[in-house]
């Protein structure tokens, strides 16, 4: 699919290199503008319906994170392009889809564009559709430890699990919550063959309970109880693959 895109980069040489790479190796990217600072970028973002923004971190009069804060509700994917690897965690927290280091690797650039194209294609296909999980209704039971033994829970009753350091909070469709002395990774592993998707470093959700998917800053899902949970950009593709 065509990806409507802009480049936000204060160095002209870097902009030219990226433009040339995109033209030669990523013909599905439709560049509609360039910006060399936050204010120029804001104008482009507000005047275009964008799929993808290539974003340098350090710019005059503000940085990439200042820009994203000013944009507010973001409905495009972001690929960070920077010479500094110490921004990686901040980029992750800003729900970046990809993190490219300068000098740009052509192979990594192609991977970044392909990843975004895959997400946008799936999002568009699911737009205004009744979400039907590919997996069957969750069956089975799991046991959770207690001081005097263990409790048995139907997996179908679990809405989502939330990490709490080395503990996990399990939220049930009965409005009850269980605190278990196991990590979220533990539950991700034992539920991997069922319809549970890790959508965030802190959340594991029962996809059969997803009633709405929202585009935005990283995207989010709304569960049957009204709970909205943020989806990490790196987890979007995995989550969307559960639906047909």
UniProtKB/TrEMBL annotation:
The keyword DNA-binding applies. SUPFAM superfamilies: CheY-like. GO terms for molecular function: DNA binding; phosphorelay response regulator activity. The modification 4-aspartylphosphate is found at residue 56. InterPro entries: CheY-like_superfamily, LytR-like, LytTR_DNA-bd_dom, Sig_transdc_resp-reg_receiver. SMART domains: LytTR, REC. Keywords: DNA-binding, Phosphoprotein. It comes from the Bacteria. It holds the Pfam family LytTR. Residues 4-117 form the Response regulatory domain. Residues 142-244 form the HTH LytTR-type domain. This is LytTR family DNA-binding domain-containing protein. It comes from Wocania arenilitoris.
């Amino acid at each position: 699919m065509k990806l409507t895109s802009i480049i936000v980069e204060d160095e002209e040489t870097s902009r030219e290199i990226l433009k040339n790479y995109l033209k030669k190796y990523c013909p599905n990217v439709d560049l509609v503008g360039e910006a060399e600072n936050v204010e120029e970028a804001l104008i482009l973002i507000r005047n275009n319906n964008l799929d993808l923004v290539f974003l340098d971190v350090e710019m005059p009069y503000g940085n990439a994170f200042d820009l994203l804060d000013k944009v507010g509700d973001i409905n495009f994917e972001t690929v960070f392009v920077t010479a500094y690897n110490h921004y990686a965690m901040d980029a992750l927290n800003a729900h970046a889809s990809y993190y490219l280091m300068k000098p740009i690797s052509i192979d990594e650039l192609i991977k970044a564009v392909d990843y975004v194209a895959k997400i946008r294609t799936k999002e568009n296909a699911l737009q205004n559709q009744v979400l039907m999980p590919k997996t069957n209704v969750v069956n089975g039971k799991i046991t959770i430890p207690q001081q005097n033994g263990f409790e048995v829970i139907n997996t179908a009753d679990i809405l989502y699990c939330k990490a709490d350091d080395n503990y996990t909070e399990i939220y049930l469709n009965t409005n009850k919550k269980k605190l278990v002395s196991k990590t979220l990774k533990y539950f991700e592993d034992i539920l991997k063959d069922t319809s549970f998707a890790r959508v965030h470093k802190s959340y594991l959700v029962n996809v059969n309970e997803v009633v709405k998917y929202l585009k935005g800053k990283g995207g989010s899902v709304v569960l049957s109880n009204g709970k909205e949970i943020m989806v990490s950009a790196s987890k979007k593709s995995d989550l969307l693959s559960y639906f047909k």
